[in-house]
Amino acid sequence: HITKGSVVFDNVSFAYPESEEDVVKDINFQVAPGEKLAVIGSTGAGKTSLFQLIPRLYDPTKGKVSVDGSPLSDYSLDELRGSIGYVPQSPLLFTGSVTDNIAWGKDQATTEEIMQAAKDAQIHDTIMQLDDQYETRVGQKGVNLSGGQKQRISIARALIRKPKILMLDDSTSALDLATESRLLDAIDTYQCTMLIITQKITTAMRADRILLMDEGKLLAIGTHTELLASSALYRKIVES
Ligand code: GTP
Ligand code: MG
Questions:
Q1: Distance from C-alpha of 53 to C-alpha of 212, rounded to nearest angstrom
Q2: How far is the CA of 50 from the centre of ligand 2 (A)?
Q3: Which value does ipTM take for this structure?
Q4: Any ligand 1 atom below 6 A from CB of 47
Q5: Is 16 in the pocket of ligand 1 (CB under 6 A)?
Q6: What does the H/E/C string look like for the chain?
């Protein structure tokens, strides 16, 4: 069982099945249980591709990813995806109520749990303004929600499972600083390992360490202060 939430990448490379080119290149790093790691890097750097290897949306072409000291292949997909809250860059809602979408995969969720997850994801107030509140239909045949609202419903869906590892792929890009800060404060109370892809240096600085990717490679990993000292590209990003 995944009880701690440590993650280790061992010489991991990855190419998409239909492609020859590695988009993740020989990556090594470790994330400790409860640690918060931000992943930054320009568009196309391979951040999303790297993330997808953890809940096994794809498997590496070389190397090994481990969670809690065991290779991912030791876990069933149900177990992995039950313990890993993965919020994709462009989350999909299915046609159904807000409640259905948040509780998805957790059939026995109570109204209280659903509302708590929505509050923590900073989407509760928006839901309360919809015509039918938590019973409002969303998804293809439902009301239109903005990308940021869908992201937050998707975050609530991840939080309600109390994941050991929470992965946010640019999920806070649409939030203003104050709301994002409240969201990250709420996530702190979950005591999970958090991996967060972000474009914002202020968001990255809230993490314990920052991993900088460029063209599929891990260029640097460390604290903000360490990266300022060690990485010219990091300094360039901070100054821009
Ligand atoms: P942004 O989300 O734009 O910040 O980029 P990213 O850092 O998340 O990059 P991503 O991992 O999405 O892409 C890395 C490389 O993989 C790019 O060259 C993409 O064109 C390529 N790529 C991404 N998704 C796919 C896919 O489904 N199939 C193939 N063949 N290539 C992909
Ligand atoms: Mg991406």
A1: 17
A2: 9
A3: 0.99
A4: yes
A5: yes
A6: CCCCCCEEEEEEEECCCCCCCCCEEEEEEEECCCCEEEEECCCCCCHHHHHHCCCCCCCCCEEEEEECCEEHHHCCHHHHHHHEEEECCCCCCCCEEHHHHHHCCCCCCCHHHHHHHHHHCCCHHHHHCCCCHHHCEECCCCCCCCHHHHHHHHHHHHHCCCCCEEEEECCCCCCCHHHHHHHHHHHHCCCCEEEEECCCHHHHHCCCEEEEEECCEEEEEECHHHHHHHCHHHHHHHHC
* CB 52 near ligand 1, within 6 Å: no
The amino acid that residue 21 corresponds to is E
- Ligand 1 within 6 A of CB of 46: yes
Question: How many angstroms separate the alpha carbon of residue 120 from the centre of ligand 2?
Answer: 24
Task: Name the residue among 3, 34, 24, 46 with its Cα closest to residue 166.
Answer: 34
CB of 165 closer than 8 Å to CB of 111:
no
Structure tokens at 199: 């474009």
Percentage with pLDDT > 70 across the chain: 100
Instruction: Show the CA angle centred on residue 12, arms to residues 8 and 18, nearest 5°.
Output: 135
- Residue 170 Cα, ligand 1 centroid: separation in angstroms? 14
- Structure confidence by residue, pLDDT tens digits, 107-120: 789 999 999 999 99
**Domains located in the chain, CATH noted:** 7-239 (3.40.50.300)
Q: What digits encode the pLDDT tens for the residues 162-178?
A: 999 999 999 999 899 99
